[in-house]
Write a structure and sequence with these properties.
Layout lengths: L1 E4 L6 H10 L4 E4 L2 H6 L2 E4 L5 H10 L3 H9 L4 E4 L1 H5 L3 E2 L13 E5 L10 E6 L17 E6 L1 E5 L5 E6 L3 E8 L2 E4 L7 H13 L1
Parallel strand pairs: 1-2, 1-3, 3-4, 4-12, 5-6
Antiparallel strand pairs: 6-9, 7-8, 10-11, 11-12
């Protein structure tokens, strides 16, 4: 069973349906005990970094997430969920993230012809081998919706990169912690293959 962490940040139903389409029982939950009993957990989300952390704190989910990750079970952050894995974001100065990984979330710079938020299909390159992308060809396209991007401190955790005016870190893998800035649940067969590999871990 995979726990889809519900903290009122949206996009949870799409992730749940994608997991169920792949044959995995998926439960939407705000309950810390239910999360800690799951085999895997996914932290999806869209919206602002600061308010998301506020809701995770209000629901008492931060200790549960940290305990789950310490247990060694697979944990995946999607879109805002990836950003929350890191230490801080320019979107919400002074608000600490989960700090499960080291790095910062930065705002895309304003450039002529570059619309922010970045919305659309972009290709991936793979600087390292990753279990999630084992069935994905390099330069495959996935779907993004974001105004902020990850700059990981340790390049060794970066599993995929993409470009939108600059090169940015699009996915991470560090032990049992995974993250995708793009939306695998909205990325067709490529996205489903990524989720499939996560659900096999």
């Amino acid at each position: 069973m995979v726990a889809i962490i519900d903290y009122d940040a949206g996009n949870t139903l799409n992730v749940q349906k994608a997991c169920e389409a792949l044959g995995m029982e998926a439960v939407l939950t705000k309950d810390a005990d239910a999360i800690l009993k799951a085999e895997r957990a996914i932290l999806p989300g869209v919206g602002a970094f600061g308010s998301a952390m506020e809701r995770l704190q209000a629901y008492g989910l931060v200790p549960a997430i940290r305990e789950f990750v310490r247990s060694g079970r697979p944990f995946l952050g999607i879109c805002l969920g990836l950003q929350l894995l890191f230490e801080e974001s320019e979107e919400s100065p002074g608000v600490p993230g989960l700090a499960l990984l080291e790095g910062k979330i930065l705002k895309f710079p304003e450039k002529e012809g570059l619309r922010v938020p970045h919305m659309g299909w972009n290709s991936l390159t793979f600087p390292k081998k990753s279990r999630l992308f084992s069935a994905v060809e390099e330069h495959s396209y996935v779907y993004f919706v974001h105004s902020y991007y990850l700059k990981a401190k340790d390049p060794e955790v970066v599993a995929a990169q993409s470009e939108y005016g600059l090169s940015f870190d699009a996915a991470v893998e560090a032990g049992n912690v995974f993250g995708a800035q793009f939306h695998p649940e909205k990325s067709g067969e490529v996205g489903l293959s990524i989720l499939r590999e996560f659900l096999r871990l």
